[in-house]
Specification:
The complex is a heterodimer of chains A (432) and B (493).
Chain A: E1 13-15, H1 41-49, E2 55-60, H2 63-71, E3 80-81, H3 86-91, H4 94-107, E4 113-118, H5 120-125, H6 129-140, E5 144-147, H7 158-171, E6 184-190, H8 196-206, E7 210-216, H9 221-225, E8 232-235, H10 238-252, E9 256-258, H11 264-278, H12 283-305, E10 309-313, H13 316-328, E11 332-338, H14 343-352, E12 358-361, H15 365-375, E13 379-382, H16 384-392, E14 397-399, H17 409-424, H18 428-431
Parallel strand pairs in A: 2-3, 2-4, 4-5, 6-7, 6-8, 8-9, 10-11, 10-13, 11-12, 13-14
Antiparallel strand pairs in A: 1-12
Helix pairs in contact in A: 1-7, 4-6, 7-10, 8-17, 11-12, 12-17, 13-14
Chain B: H1 13-16, E1 43-44, H2 51-59, E2 65-70, H3 73-87, E3 94-95, H4 100-105, H5 108-122, E4 126-131, H6 133-138, H7 142-157, H8 159-164, E5 166-170, H9 179-194, E6 205-208, H10 214-227, E7 231-233, H11 237-240, H12 261-266, E8 272-275, H13 282-292, E9 296-298, H14 305-319, H15 325-345, E10 349-354, H16 356-368, E11 372-378, H17 385-396, E12 405-408, H18 412-420, E13 427-430, H19 435-441, E14 445-447, H20 465-484
Parallel strand pairs in B: 2-3, 2-4, 4-5, 6-7, 6-8, 8-9, 10-11, 10-13, 11-12, 13-14
Helix pairs in contact in B: 2-9, 5-7, 9-13, 15-20, 16-17
Classes of the chains: A alpha/beta (432), B alpha/beta (493).
Pfam family, one (chain B): Oxidored_nitro
InterPro entries (chain B): ChlB/BchB/BchZ, Nase/OxRdtase_comp1, Nase_comp1_CS
Keywords (chain B): Nitrogen fixation
């Protein structure tokens, strides 16, 4: 491989040459001094928990962490912070936190619970977060739950996902009584980016299934308390979902399946697996109908995409299925990588990409730059941080998680085709 | 505040909009004890970010410079997101990548190894080492770490190359201040580390722009050009964060422009320093004054007629250059536009929030437009803010319909709750964080200040100088017209 790699990064980027492929080393701390694409554990926890609407999100730390945390997932909720200052750091801020919890509950009397997020500052000063939360909970009469995910813990934001999942499992899921719902399912690790969840729900409804709770795309305290009534858990994002699914299987005996709704074939497989579990008879018909409609609608875009090269770099458990979806668009996936993948993610991705594709974990800006100059992809898929740099190099960029329309399900596939075709053939690239 | 018809039948008003203006009978006021920020341990919807991001902003304005953030990855990632969203440009910021081991044993290894890795992959000319909460609490001795890092670089890449790379240490514990102070500290740190005095002073002027956008800095450059003044702008983000798209680019990618290292070293020889924002960058001007005896002024942000006049007079006084006819004509055009639009702006009640320097500048300008600033709020506490806005009020108080309320270092919750108690409000001027408030109160929002990320092009539109003020004026007037006279059938002229 002609890429110039820091010695400490060897093994993190591999070219698929065999089946089964050699997998990149993953789950390691980032090399200091690089322009990392990773975020911190606090970010991961915020990403998972931010959409829960009927709780107070209280960030125990300096106001900056709280401010940034509000930008995660574009929700317009109120943001609460203890705004730690110098004297709090020196003398401790336990009492301040206690008072802040009480004040927040006075200002939002109908909130069902309080989530208290720890930040790096609190992680280092070593505040007794659980003790203070417990004391406050007795006074405010509702759960006050510490989310102990200071930024430096774990190798990447994935650590925050796990911590958040543990919090949900321990304090929110299955807290109310209720009989099992015969056709009830949960979606775990589905965040409802630009309506993905609605697409998936519509498909499930066609199979006669009822979505009880989607964590955390549609997860209020009330619906999570009922989540144990489902008969099957559907794991969409492995990073959050797997942990939750395992926990719910142990606690409530609910079986789970790991599927993906990105791309035609993956969606069809997902529906087959779920349909088989419930013995739904209409599955094949739903699939056939969906595929037919999607192929007709996507056809005008596919002609623009055939043979074009694409690089993928985003959240790990999506890269496998997205790589397959881009193949269905007729594109060659030249790189599939992620900031925070685990072994299973790369296993799945490795099986789904063609020989010669680069698999990379935790690539930083310089590595990505070298890669694109070397392979000249026609499209790059990833997050906002990389977007403007790639465009400066003349490479069209698709932001994923997406900004406009859902990409999940059969109709989402058409949206993906439209976006990709529009971007690679954008007039701006004829003018440069 | 005009209340619209309730669009959904059969839904009680209080259920439709829970947090509504007090005009509705079912409005439940907040616990009045907890509305003032000073009474709370809690901050709700803050209007300030952390100190490191101000320092990163500054470093990104230096040619071939990269900020190195001595902290966990989030401290870098969040800032990169923020810059990308505001400027729609790449932001190259390195992370020290703190993990548990760093939290326990300190960040020495991360800094020494990190600087080495950064240098061999990017070959920057300047590295701004920006500290964070965690690094400050652990008590990283950055000074000695930097010596060690320098020694390692010397051994690895040779002493000559290693000495060429300037390392600037900027201490920014986030819990001790906001982004405004971060920028301020960066300005001082750069000048302390790099500026030197030779025996031959020249007639260049130092400009420290503060947290102004590329469009603003371009406007300042235009003024300097018109006056024939040579100047060093520290930190010049006008090209680094507004770069042209010209593929193919070389890698590693460095944007064009930025203040040159050689220029910063020369700043000790300038004839004067003007910090356009007293709170963001003023310390740098004060430092040069004390150390090298260079005359300095700090603020006000040149928004509007009087403040821009003041800037031109300072420039003229320091350099002996006359104010040219072209700039006088620009002033004339601004005043002409103010006369044209005055019947729309006069007696309008406006609320302004944001960073203290910007709010003070905009407040003076809206007073010049005959508007009444009913509430002005600085998200970051500033010692000067109160005096500055009071000075602006003093000249126009006879025209005010209400007494202005001044918030210094409060949060947006307190600001919003106060606005809800007012009988009438026409306009809000502030950053993107004001969208919710404007929607809630059903008044237009004019976007000014930091950060604006939900609309395009604002980073390129100046608000400083006569031309910037004219553009801002049009935006204010058009926002009012859009709201009151949405199409030509409702226009009387």
């Amino acid at each position: 491989m002609p890429l110039e790699i820091l010695p400490s990064r060897r093994g993190h980027a591999v070219v698929k040459e065999s089946d089964p492929p050699v997998l990149p080393v993953c789950g390691q701390p980032t090399v200091p001094g690089v322009i990392s694409e990773r975020a911190c554990a606090f970010y991961g926890a915020r990403w998972v928990l931010a959409p829960i609407p009927d709780v107070i999100h209280l960030v125990h730390g300096p106001v900056g962490c709280a401010y940034y945390g509000r930008n995660v997932r574009r929700k317009g909720y109120r943001l609460f912070s203890t705004n730690l200052e110098e004297r709090d750091v020196v003398f401790g801020a336990g009492e301040k936190l206690y008072r802040a919890i009480l004040e927040a509950c006075t200002l939002v009397p109908d909130a069902r619970a309080v989530l208290v997020y720890a930040t790096c500052v609190v992680g280092i000063t070593g505040e007794d977060l659980p003790g203070i939360c417990k004391r406050a909970a007795r006074v405010v009469g509702r759960p006050v739950v510490p989310v102990n995910a200071p930024g430096f813990c774990g190798a990447s934001q994935a650590a925050g996902h796990d911590i958040a999942a543990r919090v949900l499992l321990e304090h929110f899921i299955g807290k109310e009584a209720g009989e099992p719902v015969e056709n009830g399912v949960n979606l775990l690790g589905e965040f409802n980016v630009q309506g993905d969840l609605d697409e998936i729900e519509a498909l499930l409804e066609q199979l006669g299934l009822k979505l009880i709770c989607a964590i955390s795309g549609r997860a209020s305290v009330a619906t999570m308390a009922q989540a144990h009534r489902a008969r099957l858990n559907i794991v969409h994002c492995r990073r959050t979902g797997h942990f939750l699914a395992e926990g719910m299987r142990e606690k409530f005996g609910i079986p789970y399946v790991k599927v993906s709704f990105f791309g035609i074939e993956e969606t069809a497989t997902a529906l087959r697996v779920i349909g088989q579990f419930f013995g739904a008879t209409e599955v094949e018909e739903v699939i056939a109908q969906g595929i037919r409609a999607a192929k007709v609608a996507a056809a005008p875009f596919l002609s623009k995409l055939g043979g074009k090269r694409v690089g993928l770099f985003f959240g790990a458990s999506r890269i496998g299925s997205m790589a397959k979806a881009f193949k269905e668009l007729g594109m060659d996936v030249v790189l599939a990588g992620s900031q925070f993948g685990c072994q299973e993610d790369y296993q799945e991705a490795g099986n789904k990409v063609a020989s010669g594709t680069v698999l990379v974990d935790d690539a930083h800006e310089r590595e990505l730059l070298e890669f694109v100059t070397y392979r000249q992809p026609h499209l790059w898929v990833g997050g906002t941080k990389e977007r403007f740099l790639m465009q400066k190099l003349g490479i069209p960029f698709l932001v994923f998680p997406q900004e406009n329309d859902p990409f999940a399900g059969f109709r989402g596939f058409v949206n993906l085709a439209r976006q990709a075709a529009g971007l690679v053939s954008a007039p701006v690239w004829r003018l440069t | 505040m005009r209340l619209k018809e309730i669009p959904i039948e059969g839904v009680p008003y209080d259920q439709l909009r829970i947090e509504k203006v007090p005009a509705a009978p079912a409005y439940q006021p907040r616990d009045p004890e907890l509305v003032p920020a000073a009474n709370r341990a809690l901050v709700v919807n803050p209007d300030r970010i952390c100190m490191p991001i101000g320092a990163m902003w500054a470093v990104l304005g230096v040619h071939r410079a990269i900020p190195f953030v001595q902290g966990a990855q989030g401290c870098t990632t969040y800032a990169r997101y923020t810059f990308c969203r505001i400027f729609k440009e790449p932001a190259t910021i390195a992370t020290a990548s703190f993990h548990e081991d760093a939290a326990v044993f300190g960040g020495r290894r991360n800094l020494v190894e990190g600087l080495r890795n950064l240098v061999v992959r990017y070959w920057p000319e300047v590295i701004g080492v920006v500290t964070t909460c965690s690094s400050e609490i652990m008590g990283d001795d950055i000074g000695s770490f930097l010596k060690e890092a320098r020694a390692r670089l010397r051994a690895e890449i040779g002493p000559e190359k290693a000495e060429q790379i300037a390392l600037v240490q900027i201490n920014t514990p986030s819990f001790a201040g906001s982004h405004v102070e971060g920028y301020d500290r960066a300005a001082k740190a750069f000048l302390q580390t790099l500026a030197t005095k030779r025996d031959t002073p020249h007639d260049r002027v130092n400009i420290i722009p503060g947290l102004l956008y590329p469009g603003d800095i371009r406007e300042i450059k235009h003024i300097l050009r018109e006056m024939g003044i040579e100047a060093t702008i520290l930190f010049d983000i006008s090209d680094t964060l507004d770069a042209p798209l010209e593929p193919p680019q070389r890698i590693p990618y460095y944007p064009p422009g930025g203040t040159r290292l050689a220029e910063i070293k020369e700043m000790g020889n300038a004839c004067a320093t003007i910090a356009l924002q007293a709170d963001a960058g003023g310390s740098g001007a004060v430092y040069l004054g004390r150390k090298f005896g260079i005359p300095a002024v700090a603020g006000p942000t040149p928004v509007g007629v009087a403040a821009t006049d003041a800037l031109l007079q300072h420039l003229s006084r320091f350099t002996g250059r006359a104010i040219p006819a072209t700039l006088r004509a620009e002033r004339g055009r601004l005043v002409d536009a103010m006369a044209d639009t005055f019947h729309h702006t006069m007696m309008k009640r406006v609320a302004i929030f944001g960073d203290p320097d910007i709010v003070a500048g905009v407040t003076r300008f809206v007073c010049e437009l005959g508007m009444t600033p009913v509430a002005v709020a600085a998200g970051t506490f500033s010692k000067r803010f109160g005096q500055e806005v009071e000075a602006a009020f003093a000249a126009y108080r006879d025209l005010f319909l209400d007494t202005p309320k001044v918030f210094n270092g409060s949060d947006l919750f307190e600001f919003e709750e106060y606005l809800k108690t007012l009988p009438r409000l026409d306009l809000i001027i502030g950053n993107s964080k004001g969208v919710d408030i404007a929607r809630e109160l059903e008044v237009p929002l004019v976007r000014v200040g930091f950060p604006i990320y939900d609309r395009f092009g604002y980073q390129k539109r100046p608000i400083v100088g006569y031309r910037g003020a004219e553009l801002l004026l049009y935006e204010i007037v058009n926002a009012l017209l859009d709201y009151r006279y949405p199409d030509d059938r409702t226009q009387q002229l």
